Each structure stands twice: as structure tokens, then as C-alpha cells.
Amino acid sequence: MDLAFTNEERAFREEVRQFLRETVPPEMRRKLVEGAQLSKDEMVAWWRILNKKGWCVSQWPKEYGGTGWTSVQQYIFKEELQMYPAPVPLAFGVAMVGPVIYTFGSETQKKHYLPRIANMDDWWCQGFSEPGSGSDLASLKTKAERKGDKYVINGQKTWTTLAQYADMIFCLCRTDPTAKKQAGISFILVNMKSRGITVRPIQTIDGGHEINEVFLDDVEVPVENLVGEENKGWDYAKFLLGNERTGIARVGVSKERLRRIKELASKFKSGGRPVLEDPAFRERLAACEVELKALELTQLRVVADETKHEKGKPNPASSVLKIKGSEIQQTTTELLMEVIGPFAAPYGEHPDSSYEATDWIAQSYFNNRKVSIYGGSNEIQRNIITKAVLGL
Amino acid sequence: MDFELSEEQRLLKEAVDGLLSDGYQFTQRKKYMKETGGWSQDIWRRLAEQGLLGLPFAEVDGGFGLGAVEAMIVMDALGKALVLEPYLATVVISGGFLRHGGSAAQRAEHIPPIIDGRKTFAFAQLEKDSRYDLHDVTTSARKRGQSWVIEGKKFVVINGESADTLVVTARTEGAQRDTAGIGVFLVPSNVKGITKETYPTQDGLRAADITFTGVEVGAHAAIGDPNNALLLIERVVDEARTALCAEAVGAMDESLKITVEYLKTRNQFGVPIGSFQSLQHRVADMFVALEQARSMSMFATMAVDFGDGAERAKTVAAAKMQIGMSGKFIGQQSIQLHGGIGMTMEAKIGHYFKRLAMIENTFGDTRYHLRRVSESGVLV
Ligand SMILES: Cc1cc2nc3c(=O)[nH]c(=O)nc-3n(C[C@H](O)[C@H](O)[C@H](O)COP(=O)(O)OP(=O)(O)OC[C@H]3O[C@@H](n4cnc5c(N)ncnc54)[C@H](O)[C@@H]3O)c2cc1C
């Protein structure tokens, strides 16, 4: 057992840091630190820089443009991005549909889509959830009917993150209405510009626009856009959901947030002194740091074990990471609320420019409630642990 | 001991609930939010017609002379309906200053227009570095001849945009954190030297940051002793905290109701999600948190009229702390149990969560009051 990073790993971390210092536009970093929204163009431009370096799809197999890094390196890379902070490559393309395509897709699909994902020529979104099918995803109703060399898709997807930017959506559709739940589902790639697609924005409680409803009315899709075999889509979806383990805990995000908390806590006063000097506050902060350290180590144990674990098989450890990671992210936003106290109230740009902009804090407290809901809610994660690990 | 409402109190509750269930549906609230000042003149008029704006004022001042329990009943109902109108700022806080500290002349001038709904008020107290300490005041009030001249800046003044009159805390002598030398002043919001920057708040109200530059008001503007008003401020703010506790209980009560209803109607895996025991236990815990909050809200309600200021302060601090804890738990869990729907602006549930979060950070958050309780010694 050796819990320290090797010299090579430390050197690698330094290399990543150096690269970020040289390439991340300061304005973009400032926005991320202050919780401001980035534009699509800003993100795409940065991801293209990353791609030029060959790091955009780092975790993919080398033949498709990956780096061949060890899983520890992958972890370090992602953590550095989250901490700097710089936008992590769009998960929907890079971490979700990409691996599905190179694992189960046709040669034509691989040739066409993979380089476009790496270079962000296509912005992907995830069309899984429906109004009636969230936790119980397999009950989904959107159906794709085979008509000659086309599928005709009808139905509705919802909570679709950043569909407003998307060029492509990967959808789970029912292709066999007679089969039992999971059995009749297919994984289909759909161009967002297709006739019959309507995107309606959903405003989140913090006032932001990141999720959408996507309506599909007689949308025609060439059969070549089916991934793998018809009616096997559920297996691919399971693969996709279980595939992401290195970033799920978002340790780097929470580390960055703690740094920001300390910065603000040295400016905002309580009892006439900086909040950071308040022993009770320091204890809360320390408690959060301890939990985060534990999570980081748990994450590293999972990462180190990755090589032994069968690829694509859901690892119940990712449920631990998801639960604790989301809880810690939420705690950091609560600490931020505590730091700014009554100044949590203003919504939108605070008119007084002499005052620290704080409107993003309550908004991120509200918005971060999502992290225990999406990606398999924390209740569902607990069900997985009780069944798959504890055998109850 | 008697936790039951009297017949009159029950009637009052029915009246407020009736008015709000008729006039304050969620869609109506959205409309009111867009009106001038961010609330509805029409609702304000109806509250006046029902006598609700006059509840706490003495009969000699034209009010009904009712007490803390009646205030609790009203605030609870306002919390349930997520009311935007400036009841707290006008009736509870500014009304409180007039009732406890106002001269006969001040009461005669200001109370009738509050009761009949013609005028609203706002409380300008928070400063950049004061956080929750009521004695931390840099805004100054200096005597010039017969007048007071006010200089300084106040932040996040709820209803500051549309209030006719501001109740302003200002230092007449001493240093920033001295307990002595603080006064309370009535300042018409349209006098020279006042500038306002207005904005919406996270929970859908409207607020203003207000700068006072050489604002001149008459000698009669001071409520109570201009050099020693901290006790008055503490008393009124304790009443405000108590009112917020009742409002929060109303909001929690409604959140739980909506959530339980959702658990009965939302199906996943072919059954209502309310059939999952983990969720049943969660709403049971929410119920426990609600009842704990309700008890402490009642406790604070009983205590605001205590003669002993220290005893009152401690009780109210304990209540505000409990409300903070319960409100956070109920607010967060009600979003969680709604899943994606809970995250949307379109669903009402999220608005309770946001209001509860803002209540927590008003006049002292959970940590602040925890410290006050621990410093004040024994509670039980
Ligand atoms: C901000 C945001 C972004 C999202 N982005 C996307 C996206 O891009 N693409 C996409 O496809 N989806 C997306 N989702 C959807 C997300 O995956 C679902 O919200 C999630 O699966 C929960 O489903 P639901 O909202 O229907 O809630 P429900 O499944 O109705 O759950 C409601 C509550 O019941 C609980 N529950 C359900 N079943 C059980 C059970 N068996 N035992 C115990 N408790 C249970 C849940 O944990 C939750 O608390 C997003 C969601 C959010 C909030």
C-alpha cells in the first residue's frame, strides 16, 4: 500500500497545470470562479484547444484519439480541470455517447462521429428521461417505428441538458412495443435539426436555462443511426451510465469551491471580524474538508481498482462516489450561503459595483439540489448499494 | 397551558385563509410579482378591508389591539400562500417601532395610513459589514439645528422600492459596534438625498440598496431615544423573527402537504413513489421537523411579550434556530422528493424552498442564533 502519488504522476500534474495556465482564457476562468454562465462559443473554443493538444477525449482508446493515460492520470487530469477551473469536456459526447459508439457502433459511425465529438463539431445531448420515466427509465414510451430505411420517432424527452446548443441527441426509444420493458429499447442517434423536433426551455429554480423538453413528432431518422442491435439499447445505456467513474465525485469542483469559500470568508464579516476567523465556522469548514479528503481517497481507491474491474460493468463503488460527492457539493454551497449571510438575497447583478457580486451563491445553492437528483438519484444509488453490495 | 385557538382566533384564521385561497393562487402570485413594486395593491387593499393591517395596533390608535397569537395566525397564512406584500416590513416591523417607541404625534400621523392601507413602510437596517448584529451601525445621524442629517448606506431593504416611509437605524454617537448611541428615524422615502438601487430578491420579493446623502429630517423623526434605541430595535426585531418563524412554519406545512400529495400521485416502477419506504420515512422526518418548528414558533409567540428582554431574546433565538434547521431540511427534501420537477421555476414547491432559505438568512441564521442560545445559558 502506498497512498502517495508517484514522481511521474506528480510531474504529470505539473504538466497539466502548466498547460492550463498557458491556454485557459483568463476571462473564462474568472466566469467559472464567479459562477457566471459560459457561452457555447467560449466552451467550444476552449475544447478545441484541448483537442489540438490531444486531451479532449483523453479516456478513449488510443486508436480513437485517446491518450493511453493510466486511470490515475485520467483522474489527475480531470481534477486539475475542475480545480483550475476550466470546463471539463462535454460529458454527453466525450464520456457518454463516444464510448457507446466506439464499443458498439458501426465502422461508419465511428469514422463519422468520433472525430466530430473530439473536436466539438457536434454538441451532443442525452435523450433518456421522459415525463413519466425518470428513476424508472425502462418504462420510457418514446417509440421508433421502422419504415423502410427509416425510423419514425414519436414521443417526448425531458430534462435534456443544454439541448438548446445541441446538434445531436442520443435517444432511447421503444422499438418493440410487445417486449417486456428493458427488452424492446433501442439506442438511436438523432440530428437535432431534423424536421419534427421542438425544443422548449425549462427554467430552473435559480432562474437559469440549462434544461429543456424535447418533443419528437414524426421525426425521420435513417436506420444507419441505430447503434448496435435493435432492441439491445438498454444494455448500451447501462454501459453508458456505469462507465463514468473518474469524475462522478467531482472532487476537484468541491476543492475549488472550498478555496472560494475561504476567499469570501476572509472578506465578509461576522461579529466585526472576518467570517474565516470564527471558530465555529472554521470547524464546519474543517468537517467538510475531512469528508472531502475521505471522498478523494475513496475515489482514488476506485480509480486504482479500475484496471482490475471489468470495463463497462457497473461498479457499485460509483454509487458511493455519487452519494457523497453530491452531498459534499451541496454542503459547499451551504457554507457559501453561511459566509454571505443576508447578502444571499439579491437576485441578478447586484447594482452596487463596490460590492462583491454574490447573486450566484444562492443560485448555486438552489441549483446544486439537482446533483442528488440526476444521474440516478441518491435514493436509487442507495438501492443499488443495499442490493448489489449488501445483498439485502 | 393552552395550545388551542380561541373562537375569535379561529375566525381570524378562517378569514385570512379564505382571502388568500381565493386571491393568492400560484398563477395570481406570478402576476402580482410583475406589478409596480413587486406586489399587488389590490391584495393590500383587501388585507386592509379585512382589518388585517390594523391587528396589532391599540384601539386608541385605530387598531384592534390584538396580540402575538393573532400575528402568528396571519404570518402562518402568509407563509402558506407565499405572499409578496410588505406585511412584515409595514405592519410587524415599522408598526412595532411605532407601537413600542412612537410618540403620540408619530402614532397619530403614521398608524392610520398603515391600517387603511394607504402607506407602506420599509426597515433600513442592514449594512455592508453589520451582518446580523443590530448594534453594528455606521450610518450616522447628526444634529443640525432642529434637524437630523443622515449619511450612510443600507442594504437589501425589503420593500425599499415602494415604501412611502423608511424606518432607518443610525448612529448618533459612539463607534461602529457600540451598543449605545443608536437611534431609529422615520424618513420619507422621497426626500432629497436618497438614492435607491432596486432589484428582485432570490425569493421573488423586491429590495433596494439605499444611500443617504445629507438627508435632512425634523427633530420629530426620531422614534424613542435617539441616543439609546438598541433595546427598542432588539424588541422589534425579535417580533420580526417571531413573525418569520410563523411564516416559515406556514411555508413548511404547505411544502410537506404538496410533497406528500406528490408522493401519492407520481408513479415510477408501476407504483406511487409514496409506496417506497425510504420516501415514507423521509416525509415522516419532515413531519417531525415541522412539528418541532411549530412548537418553537408557538414558544416564541408566547415569549415576545415577556417583560424580561433577555428571556425573550433567548427564546426567540432558540425558535429561529429550530426554524432554520427544520426549514432547511424540509425545503431541501421537498425538492429531492419531487425529482426533476422540483428543480423547475414552474412548480410551486421550489418557491417555498427559496423563501425558507431566505428566511433562514434574515435577522440571524441558524449558526448565529445557536451562538446566542449557547451564550445565554440554560434553556431547559
Ligand atoms: C438539472 C437536471 C438535468 C438533467 N439532465 C438530463 C439529461 O440531460 N438527460 C436526461 O435524460 N435526463 C436528465 N435529467 C433527468 C434525471 O436523470 C432525472 O430527473 C432523474 O432520473 C429522476 O427522475 P425524475 O425526475 O422523473 O424523478 P422520479 O423518478 O419521479 O423521482 C422522484 C423521487 O422519488 C425517488 N424514487 C424514485 N424511485 C425510487 C425508488 N425505487 N426507491 C426510492 N426512491 C425512489 C427519487 O429518488 C426522487 O426523490 C436531468 C435532471 C435534472 C434535475
UniProtKB/TrEMBL annotation, chain A:
Q: Matching InterPro entries, A to Z?
A: Acyl-CoA_Oxase/DH_mid-dom, Acyl-CoA_Oxase/DH_mid-dom_sf, AcylCo_DH-like_C, AcylCo_DH/oxidase_C, AcylCoA_DH/ox_N, AcylCoA_DH/ox_N_sf, AcylCoA_DH/oxidase_NM_dom_sf, Mycobact_Acyl-CoA_DH
Give the Gene Ontology MF terms in alphabetical order. flavin adenine dinucleotide binding; oxidoreductase activity, acting on the CH-CH group of donors
Occurrences of domain Acyl-CoA dehydrogenase/oxidase N-terminal (ranges) = 6-120
Q: Which Gene3D superfamilies match?
A: Acyl-CoA dehydrogenase/oxidase, N-terminal domain, Butyryl-CoA Dehydrogenase, subunit A, domain 2, Butyryl-CoA Dehydrogenase, subunit A, domain 3
Annotated keywords: FAD, Flavoprotein, Oxidoreductase
Domain called Acyl-CoA dehydrogenase/oxidase C-terminal: residue spans = 231-390
What EC identifiers does the entry list? 1.3.99.-
Can the keyword Oxidoreductase be found in this entry's annotation? Answer: yes
Q: Which residues form the Acyl-CoA oxidase/dehydrogenase middle domain?
A: 125-219
Gene Ontology cellular component list: plasma membrane
Keyword Plastid among record annotations: no
Which Pfam families does this UniProt record tie to the protein?
A: Acyl-CoA_dh_1, Acyl-CoA_dh_M, Acyl-CoA_dh_N
Q: Which cofactor does it need?
A: FAD
- Do you know which NCBIfam families this protein is assigned to? pimC_large (TIGR03204)
Q: Please give the family membership noted in the entry.
A: Belongs to the acyl-CoA dehydrogenase family.
What is the name of this protein?
A: Acyl-CoA dehydrogenase FadE17
Q: Which organism is it from?
A: Bradyrhizobium ivorense
TrEMBL record, chain B:
Give start and end of each Acyl-CoA dehydrogenase/oxidase N-terminal domain: 6-117
Write the record's keywords in alphabetical order, separated by commas. FAD, Flavoprotein, Oxidoreductase
Q: Which domain of life is it from?
A: Bacteria
Question: What are its cofactors?
Answer: FAD
Q: Where is the Acyl-CoA oxidase/dehydrogenase middle domain?
A: 123-210
List the SUPFAM superfamilies.
Answer: Acyl-CoA dehydrogenase C-terminal domain-like (SSF47203), Acyl-CoA dehydrogenase NM domain-like (SSF56645)
Domain Acyl-CoA dehydrogenase/oxidase C-terminal: residue ranges? 235-375
- Which InterPro entries did the record assign? Acyl-CoA_Oxase/DH_mid-dom, Acyl-CoA_Oxase/DH_mid-dom_sf, AcylCo_DH-like_C, AcylCo_DH/oxidase_C, AcylCoA_DH/ox_N, AcylCoA_DH/ox_N_sf, AcylCoA_DH/oxidase_NM_dom_sf, Pimeloyl_CoA_dehydrogenase_ssu
Question: Entry's CDD domains?
Answer: ACAD (cd00567)
Keyword Ligase included in the entry's annotation: no
Q: Which family does it belong to?
A: Belongs to the acyl-CoA dehydrogenase family.
Which named protein is this?
Acyl-CoA dehydrogenase fadE12
Origin species:
Bradyrhizobium ivorense
